[in-house]
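Write out a record, fold above all:
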Amino acid sequence: MYNIQTLNKIAACGTGLMDKSKYKVSEEVTNPCAVLVRSASMHETELPEGLLAIARAGAGTNNIPIDKCSEKGIVVFNTPGANANAVKELVIASLFLCSRRIPAAIDWAKTLKGKGDEVGKLVEKGKSQFAGPEIKGKKLGVIGLGAIGALVANAAVDLGMEVYGADPFLSVMGALHLSTKIKYVKSNKEIFENCDYISVHVPLTPETKGMINAEAIASMKKTVRILNFARGDLVDDKAIIEALNNGGMAAYVTDFPTDALIGVEGVIALPHLGASTPESEDNCAVMACKELMDYIENGNITNSVNLPNVSMVMTGDAKVCIIHKNVEGLINKISAVTAEAKVNIENMESKSKKNVAYTVLDIKGNADGLTEKFKAIEAVLAVRIIK
């Protein structure tokens, strides 16, 4: 029986895929072999012995101690693209929200309650303070053309915007999903200098933290509107507030409120609603559960943030799954163990991701006792044999 612990409520359409005769899925399970999580922080969580994997039902994994998991040979999965449409729709909605000053206009209209027959006249007199530009024909810069950024860029093209896109890691397959009308630029600088709207869709890393800062804002149009539905720390809140107060930008929309941002004129702060749709939660749950099952039962890895994608069909007597440091000579040592044990490697695949690697062997012969022999190799982090 595989014990799966849930740290948040996971949609039943996902957990229901797990055969109850093989899986026990609950918040209360002990000694879990895998964890399903959404937003709960695991940085203070003790990772139990025997934990094979953590699946995040969402794209961001800042709530999971990735380095610690890698050191223990624990695979961390996410679900890229599962919530992409939900976030895209909210980003597009926010283009209108900040352009036409819709939230402020709604709040003002509420103050007219009780004015009776005067409401109509007051509306006509006061509406001019909420005038704002149409987005058609304006320039939108999309920084990061992954699953969400690409959808935002394509949708904006359909709305008649002139779209600039920047992503140094754009793959050939990713490019094929982009509208040919999108102007691909090599640096964020071109977006900063030319665009009326800027939407950020990159992961939070040491390199991207605070990428929208005072220097970047100074190079932008004073009428720029910035949208951040990726991660709060990509943007320097202090720089945003200063720019809004001194006329250096028009608006900031974020899905990551902070105490400093709340109530600031020109800021629209949403309570992290990007993926808060029933469709998105269902998609993420299904993808996360499928990733876990494929790894637990077959040793295959898809959409891991700390290990490479590896998939192999077992044709021999057993599949040996080895997570190890990405060091020179390790494959030779693994082969030496199989030779000494007189088992034949029918097939092998080995890939690395930064400083961690995953090697899978499809072997013919008796696998008994191999686990400990492989674990004895220096730099091996975890070993599992599937029969």
